[in-house]
Structure formats: structure tokens, C-alpha cells
Amino acid sequence: MPKMKTHSGAKKRFKVTATGKLRGRSAFSSHILEKKSPKRKRRLGAPAEISKHDRQRVEILLGAKHRARRRPAVAARPEAEARAQSAGRNATRSTPK
Fold it and tell me: Quick one: which of 31, 58, 55 has its CA closest to 44?
């Protein structure tokens, strides 16, 4: 299988820091700047950390290994199984006792 290619748009827009965080351009910084204060515009000019909600998507675009989600193993509860089995038996009876 061939190697996965890095998304060319993502590699231009995001950088990975030495500690592994993702940095990108701040939103709301390109137009309608008259009403924004100089302090706010300076802050928006600096690179911002990508939120944890978008992080996995950006990492995949940058070529990170795609990790499959693992569902946690649920321990079997004997009382719940017993209830489910007895409910199944009751449902199959055609005539009540």
C-alpha cells in the first residue's frame, strides 16, 4: 500500500510545536477590523492553539497515524444477564399460568 500524503493545504496552515501542540491562524482577523480594538487585533495576529475538538482532524490531515477508537470493555453483570434471560422466557410464553 502506498504512503499517505500530507494534506497540502493543512501543511501550509498548521505547525506542530516542539511539545506536540498544534498552532494555526486565529479566526476573525482578516476583515471588519475597524470596530476591533488595537489590543484585540494584536492578539488575533499571533498564532493560536488548535482546540482539542479540532485537533484529531488536523493531526490526520498532517499525516498522524489514524488511531481507531477503542470501546472500553464492559464487565458482564450476572444479575442483568439473568433478568434478560427471564424476560426472554416470559415473552415467548403464549398462555399465562
Answer: 31
